[in-house]
Amino acid sequence: MDRTDEKSFSCVVNGEYTVLTGADTTPAIVALRAHGLFSVRETCGIGVCGTCTVLLDGEPVSACILPLYALDGRTVQTAEGLEEGGELSDLQQQFIASQAFQCSFCTPGFLMSGQALLDGTDGPLDDEAIEDGLQGHLCRCGCYAAIKEAVRECSAARTCSRAGARG
Amino acid sequence: MIQDNIDNTAGAGIPNPNRSIPVATGPTVGQPVDMVGARARVSGRVDFALNAVVPGMTHARLLRSPMPHARISSIDTSAAEKMPGVVAVLTAADFDRPGAPARYYGAVLRDQPVLCGEKVRFAGDPVAAVAAETEEQAAAALLEIEVDYEPLPAVGSVAEALAEGAPLVHEKPPLPREASYADIKFHGREGNVCTKFQLRSGDVEAGFAAADHIFDNTYHSPAVQHLTMEPHVVLARFEGERLTVTSSTQAPYAVRDTLAEMFGVASSKVRVIVPPIGGGYGGKTYAKFEPVTAALAWKARRPVKLVLPRDEEFLSLTKHAATIRMRTGVSSDGKLLARDVQVYFDAGAYTDISPRLIKNGGYSTAGPYAIPNVRIDSYAVYTNLPPAGAYRGYGVSQAAWAYEQQMDEMAEALGIDPVEFRRRNLLTEGERFATGEIMREAHWRELLDRTAEAIDYDTDRRVVVDEHRVRGKGVAVILKSTITPSTSHAAMRLDADGSLQVLTSSVEMGQGAHTVLAQLAAQPLGLPVSAVHVTEPDTQYTPYDQTTSSSRTTRAMGGALTSAAHVIREKLLKLAGDLLEVSPTDLELADGQVVAKGSPGVRMSVPEVFRRTRTGSISGDGEVITSGGLDPETGQGIASDHWHQGAAAAEVEVDLGTGKVYVRHVHSIAHAGRVVNPKLARLQMHGSTVFGISHALYEELVYDEGILTNPNLSDYSITAMGDMPAQLEVEFLEDEGEAEIHGLGETTLPPVIAAIGNAVRAAIGAPVRTLPITPERVLEARNS
Ligand code: FES
Ligand code: FES
After folding, report:
1. How far apart are CA B362 and CA B345, in angstroms?
2. Do A69 and A97 fall into the same domain?
3. Among partner residues B229, B310, B511, which is closest to A106 by beta-carbon distance?
4. Residue that terminates a domain, selected from A81, A106, A129
5. Whether residue B772 has a cis bond before it, omega within 30° of 0
6. Can you give the residue ranges of the 2Fe-2S ferredoxin-type domain (chain A) (predicted)?
């Protein structure tokens, strides 16, 4: 990237006013990681694995194919922002209880889409709804059953913090 | 030394000299404790190597050959060197001069160039490397490097490589590394044969002569990729001649030794640090990209970080494609009498760990069966394809795909129920395996019975749902070895505040190693898991361990830690015994207290024992060193210090119109002996199931004239959440009381693949002998 292409983009990241720098077309993941948000990770780089998922105005998006300009003036949430006052969100806690990860490289992506799914629905979710909501997320370690269980349990308890609504 | 014990003709067999340290369920062992560091994992704060940053760091990219086999006539880097931000451009010309690193490396044979010089051997072979201030600048500079190639005829498969007059991947057999591994022997190295393993047991011709039926089938497994979600990451930096490498490796000590040999320095001059890694599955075992990154750092005189791009991950290492011709002679009452196997493993362009894999995969083709007469020839064959190496399942997936498919085919031809047919032949306690060794703790029958029962195998083995859909059920049972001989050391230190520091070189890659090791270390000392801190591998401080692979960590490293904990326990009880005036043998440890057995009032806290005796810390170490080995001519000896035993059952539904297979139900079971953490153990088995489904139905690296056509996650499919069976169960077979630990990382992967294959065969009434079982292959099998 030529330094002369660098621009500033302002957005709210995990509740804080933030200026990210890069070219218009710099992938959002590059700028977010440069900002120290290491929960945003790349596996496929082409928008098919879900590892790099962040919430843009509450909607899950793939940060690997999202151009930086798309963040301008918007609200971004990453896994670092799921905690509230140093407390893990209900879904994060349930991920631990259900042991919904092995290497956990994919975990932030699943958590973001899982949170968006919970935020956008009411009541207990069945397997089909969960599979639908987490479609496009891959976990090579093979934790799918535990991940489903975590989201199912959380939806049944339904005290999950509405992280997407917090912004 | 082992050969002395071998009498190939005797029925007595070879006793196993190895013993493990049995453990009992207790306050920490056997408990479903949360993974250590779980909080960091769900908040995205695990410090993967991917996050590593050091001052002055530059970024590396590799230039790779576009041709599968070619001579390099010239490389011109002058334009690239002038590109903005470029710090160093590295080529073969930088190596093998006074003061420069050696260009060839390899865990067993030194045949892999860090960068190619005279020729390239696969499409993707690295020819140059650039370090620049940014990754983009490094990538831009690659485009300015000019390489002239003279194409050579290439071999794209084992068949082509073994044909008369085939072009040679390596003109002369590469030299073995001096410090290779004790279990690896060489055989038949000529032409494109990298090496072979052979096994001779009994009299195969006599066995076939006595047989009523002889089955002769060929089975094929393709190359597939590990696809760890975190790519290979290496950060290398020099201080004078001291090299420090942070790497996502499964084998810190193997990497250290390779780098020390390459730079011609004492191994103490190389330090390898391994943060938690984002998946391994075998793909990060032995030196991979550490040599090129370190060489670049040496030339750049700056720290260099390499994050391998995803398309290059597909070129890094694969599971071995394998073609297995299996001839088996059976009596009409269903006893296996003789087996003759030719196994061809495609090693790709470089040896990597193929010599061990073809050995283990080779003898595994005898299966968990008592077959009196066995002949196995297992070959590693060089081709002009990306190198193949360790992969979860380690040759057993390919072997079991052959022998468990054939078991069902034979059972049907003989008119015997497939489970009953297996039962008549499965190894039982004290029987000889094909290597001559005596099997102990043989549980295969029980595993098979339980898995068959779990899917109700006896009823509705084939169900016609409607005119388009049929269902079928299948089972499979396997045995798997672990690296033998092998060595693991551990050290630990109990501090005055009652906390325990565990020093181990076992890598945490998501399998939960550090959690189960903390559980095992805590128990003899009566500590809670929260009092234990497991250090990340750092070859400067953590003791030697061979590798984190082969499902060996919980047993081998766990055994070393258990010994170390007992050393500390003895020292501590001695100190406390003197203070309490009680014999150490009458003391026990619980909840951080030393307590007299039978008199709970006589007690003292661990910190107080330290204070009163002016002790600062108590250290202990432990080790597990196993022995064994096979005779190079006969393959007789001790192949494995203990055996992994597993079974699986599957029910599938096949759409006869499209040929698509839907997995409805998978059950898998492994002999665990003692489960240290049921929560994490379950996940290992789930992971094996997910890999098994993936290898059975979806995964295949497709090459066109030696060029990989699907190096991305949109053209290369792996199991997604929606592909999971509605019913998925895993089960452990545990022993009573104090029991040995058996690894669970891979045991149920091979049988899941084979069980799905057998279920498809039951459904459509015809075998698909080539993996993966794609819709096209299903339709083809049905129509033939
Ligand atoms: S890395 Fe962005 S979707 Fe895979
Ligand atoms: S936990 Fe490793 S990829 Fe999902």
Report:
1. 9
2. no
3. B229
4. A81
5. yes
6. 7-82
